[in-house]
Amino acid sequence: MYDSKMYELGAAASVIRTIFEYGNARKKEIGADNVFDFSIGNPSVPAPAKVNETICDLVKNMDSVALHGYTSSAGDYEVRQTIAENLNSRFGTDYSGDNVYMTVGAAASLTVTIHALCEAEDEFVVIAPFFPEYRVFIEGAGAKVVVVPAMKPSFQINFEALEQAITPHTKAIIINSPNNPSGVVYTTQTIEKLAELLRKKEAEYGKPIFLISDEPYRELVYDVTTDTPFPAKIYENTIICYSFSKSISLPGERIGYILVPNSVKESKAIFAAVCGAGRALGFVCAPSLFQRVAAACINEKTDLTIYRTNRDLLYQALTEYGFHCVYPDGAFYLFVEALEEDAEAFCDKAKAFELLLVPADSFDCPGYVRISYCVSTDMVRRSLPAFAALAKSYGK
Amino acid sequence: MYDSKMYELGAAASVIRTIFEYGNARKKEIGADNVFDFSIGNPSVPAPAKVNETICDLVKNMDSVALHGYTSSAGDYEVRQTIAENLNSRFGTDYSGDNVYMTVGAAASLTVTIHALCEAEDEFVVIAPFFPEYRVFIEGAGAKVVVVPAMKPSFQINFEALEQAITPHTKAIIINSPNNPSGVVYTTQTIEKLAELLRKKEAEYGKPIFLISDEPYRELVYDVTTDTPFPAKIYENTIICYSFSKSISLPGERIGYILVPNSVKESKAIFAAVCGAGRALGFVCAPSLFQRVAAACINEKTDLTIYRTNRDLLYQALTEYGFHCVYPDGAFYLFVEALEEDAEAFCDKAKAFELLLVPADSFDCPGYVRISYCVSTDMVRRSLPAFAALAKSYGK
Asked: Fewer CB atoms inside 10 Å of the end CB: C or N, chain A?
């Protein structure tokens, strides 16, 4: 009577959502200030002031029919050109608006790209830990997910394992740097080695292997000294999936883009397939007002000081308490080894201290937990004794 | 290397788009005032003033993190409840927010519903003429399109043909009233007869047959005397697909909803499948600001006087010139018999009079043309001599 897979996807409460809802109930019981909810990756920093100023300016000064009307399916050309020029000025690339396809956020960037590329028997390689929806998107397009665990404790790519995972069916590798949930940023050396391996495999199989670079956290890197390569500059068959959700704190507005550089094999045909996939999935065009907001605010940055303060507080304190933490250069996640083998049991125990953490099993990385530090610094400070007590309960 | 079907969808210029682009080039050659472009169905009436007022109010007065943050995947519950209550007060239904799933516009309402319902070997019946993207959405979900031509000249449903088209594989019938491109509104008698037939076939095959009621033009009906039934009130297995694009002139902002009434067989499971399909296709949530705008403006109406004036002018004049026009009770389209068998040749001839009309072949209704009258009344008036001359060139 209905698609049972869609039913399962809709009926299955996600682990994160379940913890979030437990948290809301618990807050009602014991007061919001007494629950330390680190479960949800929703930006806690408001959008830059210019976002709201631009919204009001546009509705006051632009013709309503033009402002709220359809744009072309790939997006308003001026918006696309502005995005291309911004990338060119930052990364020394030579993109134009013709390379940019505006999307309804990061998830749409991924589903449209995957549906555009996907043929029968295709495999998409993901590096664990990875955002759980990758599996939903890849399987939803009828392709197979191939998981390659990252190296520990650096959480950079394990190239030996990756080389073994690539087959003649491999359509693409999906990377996400800065990473959700590890917070790790891939180094230039990692991306160069990846490019080298992919070129070797392309030559071996006589076909392109695409690198899908999922970059919603691109702008969330905390130290100027961090090595932050731009993968599309290093590997020619890179397709960028971007979202403005985290960079200017607009996750609910659903605005992002796909960038298909001219260096991509048959780039024009692939861009056309992207347009076709957007059409088939029902996207029509990205929200028109927010296309223009994104372009007007392309140089705006979210205030990173809160996230950085939270990161520093948590990393230092938790390390001191005896936790093993992956040092996060970016995103707003701290990835921590659970103090027992079963991360779910560990998270249950953490609840006794009112700490809401996410076991990383659903990120295909058992034994770890994700701490989302896109929360108030005040809450971080108040939570530290609870983390200390949790460590102590494990004899640390 | 990429999905060839997606490539074809992206590379194929739609008939409407091609005419629209010819129009833009022609306007540059001979001046915009000398081209009578009736090709595009983009609302020409601005959004009600309250839309822009609400946008500014929200960005000024609501917390930025809450306003621009994720809503739940089905949408903000207050917004969903407001929509349900509005329908209840208008149609005497008893919906709640739990029946409403917010979408990224009409196309998303359809793709999400179709993907939620679609199982192997499913057939979806459409009544010709129909919006060409129906075919893209149905085939994109892996199902088969079954076309049933409407009765002429009333363009109501041909029940004999429909009965023959329904098989044990029929998952749903899609209707669109007021209709794009015919402008026809289905009568209560039509919907009641449809309900009767579907119930009979459900009993025969021992399974539900859903009615997907695609209602983006619901609010665009010009005469208070027009019989405008609410299909979900008449047939229990109706799922409503709605969009605010036309009702408050926000086509580019991508906001709409799916409504699954409790009367639908296994409605809770189907609602879950809708949530799952939204997730798999990459929608996450509908744009958060415009969810709230839609709720705040639920009682706003676009100014229909311009559309009605245009309809009356065109229908009267064209009928007088010897054209056979379907009388449009709603939407903003006039459906006219071409003056020769080949509607494409007829539209080519119309170009000589600077009239840009859309042949209805892509709507699966050869021999007709669609005139979109969501244009300025001034252009309609100035175009009339060209229509007269076109008729005369055919000896009318």
From this structure: C
The beta-carbon neighbor of B68 closest among A59, A60, A253 is A253
**Bond before A251 cis per omega within 30 degrees:** no
- Rounded Cα distance between A305 and B220, Å, is 50
Give the nearest chain B residue to A41 (CA atoms): B70
Cβ distance of B251 and A208 shorter than 8 Å: no
CA angle B24, B27, B28 (to 5 degrees): 90
Cα end-to-end distance, chain A, whole Å? 54
Per DSSP, the residues of A44-55 read -SPPPHHHHHHH
Rounded CA separation A76/A68 (Å): 12
Contact A287 B288 (CB under 8 A): no
pLDDT at res. B321: 97
How does A21-41 read in b/e, with b if 16+ C-beta sit within 10 Å? Answer: eebeebeeeeeeeebbbbbbb
Residue B105: DSSP 8-state: S
Task: Give contacts of B5 with chain A, Cβ < 8 Å.
Answer: 276, 280
Distance (Å, whole) CA B339 – CA B377:
25
Q: Which residues of A touch B9 (CB under 8 A)?
A: 275-277, 279-280
Q: Write out residues 66-85 of A within 8 Å (CB-CB) of B.
A: 67-71
At B302, is the pLDDT very low, low, confident or very high (cuts 50, 70, 90)?
A: confident
Name the pTM for this structure.
0.96
Average pLDDT over residues A333-344: 97
How high is the pLDDT of residue A36? 96
Provide the chain A residues 266-295 that lie in CB contact (below 8 A) with chain B. 266, 269-290
Cβ of B105 under 8 Å from any chain A Cβ?
yes
Q: Where are the alpha helices (DSSP H) in A322-362?
A: 343-351
> Token pair 């044990």 is at which residue?
B168
Closest Cα in chain B, distance from residue A369 (Å): 23
Taking alpha carbons only, the member of A198, A216, A218, A194 closest to residue A208 is A198
Q: Which of residues 108-167 of A touch B (CB under 8 A)?
A: 108-112, 115-119, 133, 136-137, 140
What is the tens place of the pLDDT at every residue in A253-272?
Answer: 999 999 999 999 999 999 99
Mean pLDDT, chain B, rounded, equals 96
Q: What is the pLDDT of residues A345-376, one digit of tens each?
A: 999 999 999 999 999 999 999 999 999 999 99
Kindly state the percentage of chain B with pLDDT values over 90: 94
Closest partner residue to A282 (CB to CB) among B108, B269, B273 is: B108
> Is the confidence at residue A343, as pLDDT, over 80?
yes
**Which residues, including other chains, have CB under 8 Å from residue B299's CB and lie 6 or more apart?**
B86
Cα–Cα dist B309/B284, whole Å: 41
Gyration radius (Cα) of chain A, Å: 21
Residues of A in contact with B20 (CB under 8 A): none
Q: Which phi and psi angles does B258 have, rounded to 5°?
A: -110, 135
What's the alpha-carbon Rg for chain B, to the nearest Å?
A: 21
Q: A287 to chain B: which residues are within 8 Å by CB?
A: 104, 252-254, 287, 290
Residue numbers in B near A68 (CB within 8 A): 47, 51, 249-253
Q: In which band, very low, low, confident or very high, does the pLDDT at B389 lie, cut at 50, 70 and 90?
A: very high
Q: Which H helix or E strand runs over A196?
A: helix A188-205
HSE toward the beta carbon, residue B290, CA cutoff 13 A? 31
| Separation of alpha carbons A289 and A294, rounded Å | 9
Nearest CA in chain A to B168: A1
Instruction: Chain A: give the shortest CA distance to residue B65, in Å.
Output: 5
Terminal C-alpha separation, chain B: 54
Contacts of A208 in chain B (CB under 8 A): 1
